[in-house]
Write a structure and sequence with these properties.
Helix content is about 70%, strand content about 0%. It is mostly helical. It has one domain. Keywords: Membrane, Transmembrane, Transmembrane helix.
């Protein structure tokens, strides 16, 4: 097993967290559809588009998971300077991710 640098480990963790958040929102939409409560939150005419957005959320979650696996195997991004690195501040990262995790957790709990 090869050793990963700190930068690689941080990138993998960020990709996995993003993948989990995106999959969580997709699962929450499916949960609302299964329990027939989606129309309580969304205009009935837009329900079809919200259901379709769950597919997009899952596709993006799979892409983030794939990015984490590529980082794990040492495949680097193109050197086009078009990549956005997450903040190095732990407090900033906790704040950003909690903005997404808090509503998701409240949705599943209540």
């Amino acid at each position: 097993m090869r050793m990963l640098s700190t930068v690689q480990r941080r990138a993998i963790v960020h990709h996995l967290i993003r993948s989990g958040i995106l999959a969580g929102f997709g699962l929450y939409i499916i949960f609302l559809v299964r329990t027939h409560t989606l129309v309580l939150y969304v205009e009935p005419n837009l329900a079809v588009y919200v259901k379709l957005s769950a597919i997009g959320l899952f596709a993006t979650a799979i892409y983030q998971l794939h990015s984490a696996l590529q980082e794990w195997h040492g495949v680097t991004a193109a050197a086009c300077d078009c990549n956005h690195e997450p903040s190095s501040s732990l407090l900033a990262n906790i704040g950003i991710y909690s903005l997404f995790l808090l509503p998701l957790a409240l949705g599943f709990l209540f």
